[in-house]
User: Which sequence fits this backbone?
């Protein structure tokens, strides 16, 4: 289950179709809170254990019991307490906001991108019963992005290492096999035979993936 | 990662004899100190001081500031940037985004923005262009297709070759071969984090010489340092801004101006205070920030804000500027249609006008929904001001025109602010008449109705003739009063309030007073079918009300005369001029004539 806390959710309709979130099967796996009162925080915290992912608007505005937005000091304190509880429960956290630069490493994502890819994340969760955060950052094409990262790493290793060393690195061999769909050792041997320079190898890899 | 022995193939052998010497002076590299970058730096023999340390930042404005500081502190002539940075993380195009912050940075000189950049990637151009970035709105890979950008692999010789072949794009290239090839899209046009408000402020500031105020405001400045805003700003630089700055200050000495905007605390109050600076303390802005969460800028007490706005109803404002959507969290909803009459700004306009229909109100809005503006105008707002949106990237000359139109609206409001006093006085007169214990209520109601008719005509008057119509309508109040109190008796005599006969009043030019006797002092009663209205009125004034100011009747005589000359189309009368060349009777064609007559009507009703 995924929980989203977004006080600006009503604006979403301007930019993305989000009505699907209220419908089956998404409504069963994703809970969205748009107006959170401090009086509701206790019961919200009690339910946190059921969630596999906690996503929240970085500048989430909470309200008091009457529904009036909290002042800055109270808002910060309550919001920080809530996030701390989520951290204590070791639930992965995604922070989204409009002003944020997307960084996978920090699990921070621009809000527009978050909603662009949210359905992909949920689809993946529904189909595989697990969270794949990369879907949130790269969308349905995340496997290709993973592949590109793997190839980039391979190219880096080609620049830094000798072919002999590459042959001894299993990760590298897997990457070569991924690209060429052939035995990696065979490929490296062919490079050796052709006396490829590093630039030649890089060029050859590009030929394979373009 | 350890740099191990390299495979030395034929083409990787040192090419010292073939390699050209490239001047590396003022060539800088952005480095994340990954092993590969360190190797390249060593191969290029770049000194430590030409290495710029990469640090990730959270927001676009932080990147903008970093780039600005970098170029202010360093004489960078050429730059090497890895496309993916940090290199040892997932594949990304962060290096290209940094470069976008160089190309699209209004704080840098054009020469700085146009420095040649060599991008490092072992992916070929085709592969990069197919790549999806985290930020589809800025499409940073497009930068590789623009002039001044070069792509090289992580190969020192290729990099040197690229550096050697770089050419600095010309100023003309900037628009045609760089900006036009980029695709920077808005992330949103509304909402609390959007640049829409900041953009509206900036555009108005640009034509009122206040840009510095906007950039000094951290929040606004940060919004305007996003790539999209910078793209728009840089795209609009092909003019001479000095010619488009308004140098004619709005004259508003002694005026009272109320400014109501939920985003007053987000730039607008400062801008407006400057525009209306000659009003001094007469300019009042409701402090919206007092009712908001300082971090989220959302209202924590909208009712408090709205009530403070309403507390200013009744004050003698010469101009009131009201934003249509004061509570955007409830009203700025594209998926929900909020009726124009439900908008908080509209309701506030209504509340002000219910108190005094003469208030001069300019409605402001960032929305392009004309039906909302139309509703406010139909309600009685005098003019409107549309805050500029980045959606329509107007040239500064257009912005100047918008501001000139706003100024014209303001001046028209100042000119028409007399309506506020006339309306207030009219309502007081009506209340006075209501409280007056006089048996003939039809007569009382007739005067009240006539006052309303005259005001309505004045309110709508735009042409000379329409002002004169309003004047004639107001004059009728005198006729109604005359008719009630001066009536014909038996024969040809006329009675004043059924008590005494109307005397034959006449003006003595030398004595400058009215008489009711012959030259020999014999009292004269008026006899005849139809005494002139001014004589009837003089009878009421001197005989019934026992007033003594002869100049009052002389003024009434002139005013009645003006009415008669207008109705009988006596052009010659209206062309009379005094020795200074001033027209003596043309005030009937302006609000001034109405105002003078209204002052007399006020006195007359007080005599009833």
Assistant:
């Amino acid at each position: 289950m995924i929980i989203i806390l977004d006080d600006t959710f009503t604006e979403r309709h301007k930019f993305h179709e989000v009505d699907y979130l209220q419908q089956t099967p998404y409504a069963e796996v994703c809970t969205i809170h748009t107006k959170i009162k401090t009086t509701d925080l206790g019961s919200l915290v009690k339910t946190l254990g059921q969630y596999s992912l906690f996503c929240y608007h970085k500048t989430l505005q909470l309200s008091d019991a009457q529904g009036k937005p909290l002042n800055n000091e109270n808002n910060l304190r309550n919001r920080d307490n809530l996030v701390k509880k989520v951290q204590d429960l070791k639930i992965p956290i995604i922070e989204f906001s409009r002003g944020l630069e997307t960084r996978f490493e920090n699990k921070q994502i621009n809000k527009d991108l978050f909603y662009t890819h949210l359905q992909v994340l949920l689809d993946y969760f529904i189909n595989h019963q697990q969270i794949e955060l990369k879907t949130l950052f790269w969308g349905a094409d995340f496997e290709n992005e993973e592949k590109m990262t793997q190839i980039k790493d391979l190219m880096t290793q080609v620049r830094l290492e000798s072919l002999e060393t590459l042959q001894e690195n299993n990760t590298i061999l897997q990457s070569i096999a991924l690209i060429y769909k052939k035995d990696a050792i065979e490929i490296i041997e062919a490079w050796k035979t052709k006396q490829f320079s590093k630039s030649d190898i890089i060029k050859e890899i590009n030929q394979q993936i373009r | 990662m350890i740099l191990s022995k390299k495979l030395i193939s034929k083409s990787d052998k040192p090419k010292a004899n073939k390699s050209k010497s490239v001047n590396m002076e003022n060539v800088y590299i952005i480095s994340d100190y990954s092993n590969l970058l360190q190797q390249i730096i060593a191969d290029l023999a770049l000194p430590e001081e030409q290495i710029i340390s990469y640090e990730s930042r959270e927001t676009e404005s932080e990147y903008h500031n970093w780039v600005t500081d970098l170029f202010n502190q360093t004489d960078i002539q050429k730059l090497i940037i890895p496309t993916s940075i940090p290199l040892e993380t997932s594949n990304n195009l962060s290096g290209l985004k940094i470069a976008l912050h160089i190309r699209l940075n209004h704080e840098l000189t054009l020469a700085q923005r146009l420095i040649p950049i060599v991008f490092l990637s072992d992916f070929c151009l085709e592969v990069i262009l197919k790549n999806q970035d985290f930020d589809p709105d800025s499409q940073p890979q497009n930068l590789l297709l623009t002039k001044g950008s070069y792509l090289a692999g992580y190969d020192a010789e290729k990099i040197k070759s690229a550096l050697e072949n770089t050419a600095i794009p010309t100023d003309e290239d900037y628009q045609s071969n760089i900006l036009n090839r980029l695709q920077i899209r808005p992330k949103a046009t509304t909402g609390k984090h959007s640049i829409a408000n900041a953009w509206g402020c900036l555009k108005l500031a640009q034509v009122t010489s206040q840009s510095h105020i906007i950039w000094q405001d951290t929040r606004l400045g940060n919004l305007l340092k996003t790539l999209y805003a910078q793209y728009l700003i840089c795209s609009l630089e092909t003019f001479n801004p000095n010619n488009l700055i308004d140098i004619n200050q709005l004259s508003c000495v002694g005026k009272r101006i109320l400014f109501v905007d939920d985003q007053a605390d987000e730039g607008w109050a400062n801008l407006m205070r400057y525009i209306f600076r000659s009003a001094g303390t007469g300019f009042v802005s409701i402090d919206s920030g007092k009712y908001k969460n300082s971090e989220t800028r959302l209202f924590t007490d909208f009712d408090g804000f709205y009530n403070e706005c309403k507390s200013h109803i009744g004050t003698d404002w010469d101009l009131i500027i009201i934003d249509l959507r004061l509570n955007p969290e409830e009203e700025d909803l594209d998926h929900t249609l909020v009726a124009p009459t439900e908008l908080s700004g509209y309701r506030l306009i209504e509340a002000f006008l219910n108190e005094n229909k003469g208030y001069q109100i300019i409605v402001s809005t960032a929305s392009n929904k004309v039906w909302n503006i139309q509703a406010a105008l139909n309600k009685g707002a005098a003019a409107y001001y549309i805050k500029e949106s980045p959606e329509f990237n107007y040239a500064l000359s257009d912005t100047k025109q918008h501001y000139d139109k706003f100024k014209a609206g303001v001046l028209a409001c100042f000119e028409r602010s007399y309506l506020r006093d006339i309306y207030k006085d009219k309502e007081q007169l009506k209340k006075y008449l209501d409280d007056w214990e006089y048996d003939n209520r039809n007569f009382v109601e007739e005067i009240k109705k006539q006052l309303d008719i005259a005001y309505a005509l004045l309110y709508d008057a735009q042409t000379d003739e329409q002002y004169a119509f309003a004047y004639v309508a107001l004059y009728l109040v005198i006729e109604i009063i005359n008719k009630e109190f001066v009536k014909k008796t038996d024969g040809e005599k006329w009675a004043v309030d059924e008590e005494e006969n109307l005397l034959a009043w006449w003006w003595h030019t030398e004595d400058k007073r009215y008489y009711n006797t012959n030259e020999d002092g014999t009292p004269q009663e008026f006899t005849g079918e139809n005494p002139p209205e001014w004589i009837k009125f003089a009878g009421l004034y001197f005989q019934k009300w026992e007033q003594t100011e002869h100049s009052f009747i002389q003024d009434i005589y002139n005013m009645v005369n003006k009415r008669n000359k207008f109705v009988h189309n006596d052009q010659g009368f209206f062309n009379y001029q005094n020795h200074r060349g001033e027209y003596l009777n043309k005030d009937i064609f302006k609000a001034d004539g109405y105002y003078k007559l209204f002052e007399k009507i006020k006195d007359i009703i007080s005599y009833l």
